[in-house]
């Protein structure tokens, strides 16, 4: 006899990671490349697990400009402060694993908009925002946002390739200024998510060490399905999960 599943409860995915699926944008940008909106994260490492198609991820970091090929089965990841741009090569599909689930949804991502936009928080917020839904109006706004991010990104890349990392470093500083007021919220999400998960492992190890694994009596299984298909993310069309305590319901930036 197969028992009925228990009611869904707030419970983090392994390591309290965030999870989504992306299909890279096929919109052509000013440089003739099709793909997403370049941006960075301030405190989250992000990983791409490629499930189909081909493409690349372009990155800017202190070690320069890289163009990393992506194909089915490949994995690429980038640490906080790395500017990344997903490039469509042909039906590119990716599963995204995000450190510190909930923080990107709470604002841990800054687009590579031109300096004059980054310097004005209200102007930045207006340029980053999208109308709700998945219709043509939202698609047009997402494409305008992507184009503005590519404009700033191409200038950063040109300087970095020429050996001048000043504009890239200043972009990192501008990004940090933009998110500074969000840090208390991020800290609370981290404490309730990734930190709590690590501390739970410590308590379990303590219990095993003394031979009292009572926590195993709480063993169970969970399941989830995407709660929105085809949303407009930074890099492409995004299938999202609303898992309480793990991946927050996606909010427009």
From TrEMBL:
Domain of life: Bacteria
Record-linked SUPFAM superfamilies: RmlC-like cupins
Name of protein: Cupin
